[in-house]
Amino acid sequence: MPTKLAEIVEEFAAAPKDLVLELLLEYADVIPPLPAGTDREDLEQVPECQTAFFLRATVEPDRTVSTVFDCPPEAPTTRAFAGILAEGLTGASADEVLAVPDDLYQRMGLAQAISPLRVRGGTAILARLKRQVREQAS
């Protein structure tokens, strides 16, 4: 797992249970706006999310992964999942992204702070991101 993402996971796992949701929502503002010229049609929708959520992962020639996420501001929990990935995977290689555990959000203690449906959406975001990376890296 990339070092930055491991630090975020550790921060959540060590946080008191009553502060986990507050800590999560701090990541809702991390997602940058869509890059100029990017259209939602160029992104993959994650239908498991309760809100309209779109993403794209690109494996660059140097094998680092860049990500694009699109999620409305009215969905702060879902935006926060993407914010964690955006921040934690910055500069990560394809191999590091693929090594991220599938139960990332459970390891962070989020399963006790938010609904199972929301955790399922976050898990689906990670799964689709990893699938895109896997397809491009092979």
Description:
The protein has six helices and three strands, in the order H-H-E-E-E-H-H-H-H. Helix content is 45%, strand content 10%. It has a three-stranded antiparallel sheet. With 138 residues, the chain is mainly alpha-helical. It has a single domain (3-137), classed as Sufe protein. Chain: A, CATH 3.90.1010.10. This is Cysteine desulfuration protein SufE. Residues 10-132 form the Fe-S metabolism associated domain. Belongs to the SufE family. It comes from Micromonospora halophytica.
Task: Describe the structure in brief.
The protein is built from six helices and three strands; from the N terminus they run ααβββαααα.
How would the blueprint of this fold be written?
Elements: H1 3-14, H2 20-25, E1 44-45, E2 54-59, E3 65-70, H3 76-88, H4 94-98, H5 104-107, H6 116-137
Antiparallel strand pairs: 1-2, 2-3
What is the CATH class name? Alpha Beta
What ranges have pLDDT less than 50 throughout 5 or more consecutive residues? none
Shape descriptor reads globular
Strand order in space, largest sheet: 1-2-3
What structural class do the secondary elements suggest? Answer: mainly alpha
Question: What is the helix tally?
Answer: 6
Mean pLDDT: 93
- Would you identify the CATH architecture? Alpha-Beta Complex
Q: Strand portion, in percent?
A: 5-15%
Count up the domains: 1
Give the total of beta strands.
3
Order of helices and strands, N to C? HHEEEHHHH
Q: How far apart lie the N and C ends?
A: 19 Å
Rg from alpha-carbon coordinates = 14 Å
Q: At the third CATH level, what is the topology name?
A: Sufe protein. Chain: A
Largest sheet: 3 strands, antiparallel
- The portion of residues assigned to helices is 40-55%
Pfam families: SufE
Protein name: Cysteine desulfuration protein SufE
Domain Fe-S metabolism associated: 10-132
Family: Belongs to the SufE family.
